[in-house]
Amino acid sequence: MTDDLDWNANRFLDLDDDVLVGQCMVDCYRSQGPGGQKRNKTSSAVRLRHQPTGLVATAVEDRSQHVNKARAIKRLRLTIALTLRQTISLVDFSPSELLSECIDKQSRLQVGLRDHRYNHVVAEILDILHACDMRVSEAAKQIGISTGRLTSFLQRNPKLFGKVNEMRVAVGTKPLRHG
């Protein structure tokens, strides 16, 4: 189900946390490993199984179920952005207003991991790359930035960089080198 190119990540990324969690099966369980008595006696670990997409996100690091649930939601949002593709046509394409807002005067993508726009930007960039047959130079041209600036943005997040390389290999292109 997650390989369907007609899924639109924004469909789920635009939902507030309560609605998104409402689409999930929520499992709370005891976390394994160090953390003292409380961690081993309470069900603080959280797993979210997003029913519409089948995607799963977990968080087990904290002793607090509330903190772990918030982390799992953030991870689910990133997983949605990395996984769900929307087919776009490059004929008369222009970047979304949101993506354009994240490009500064030096043509750098200025959106960090904690920025609420980050997952939307990631999803759009991956959609553009997919439409460009994973050619970074072509995608950068479509976005209006240099190849180096796009590559730098992709390398900042190991999960994003890994996904790009996975997608490149799937279309028969060499993975990008980290540098």
Question: How does this structure look, described?
Answer:
The chain is mostly helical and 179 residues long. The protein has two domains: 9-83, Double Stranded RNA Binding Domain, CATH 3.30.160; 97-170, no CATH class. The protein is built from nine helices and three strands. The chain has helices at 9-13, 17-22, 36-41, 65-83, 97-101, 118-131, 136-143, 147-155, 158-170, and strands at residues 24-29, 45-50, 56-59. It has a three-stranded antiparallel β-sheet with strand order 1-2-3. A hairpin with a 5-residue loop joins strand 2 and strand 3. The longest helix has 19 residues, at 65-83. Residues 1-5 have low confidence and may be disordered.
- The fraction of residues in strands falls at 5-15%
Mean pLDDT equals: 90
Proportion of helical residues: 40-55%
Structural class: mainly alpha
Identify the CATH class of the largest domain.
Answer: Alpha Beta
Q: What is the third-level CATH name, the topology of the largest domain? A: Double Stranded RNA Binding Domain
The tally of beta strands, per DSSP, is 3
Described by the principal axes of the CA atoms, the overall outline is elongated
Number of helices: 9
Indicate how many domains the architecture comprises: 2
How many angstroms separate the termini?
34 Å
Element-by-element helix/strand order: HHEHEEHHHHHH
User: Low-confidence segments, ≥5 residues, pLDDT <50?
Assistant: 1-5
Q: The biggest beta sheet, please?
A: 3 strands, antiparallel
The second-level CATH architecture of the largest domain is 2-Layer Sandwich
Quaternary state of this entry equals single chain
- For the CA atoms, what is the radius of gyration? 18 Å
* Sheet with most strands: strand arrangement: 1-2-3
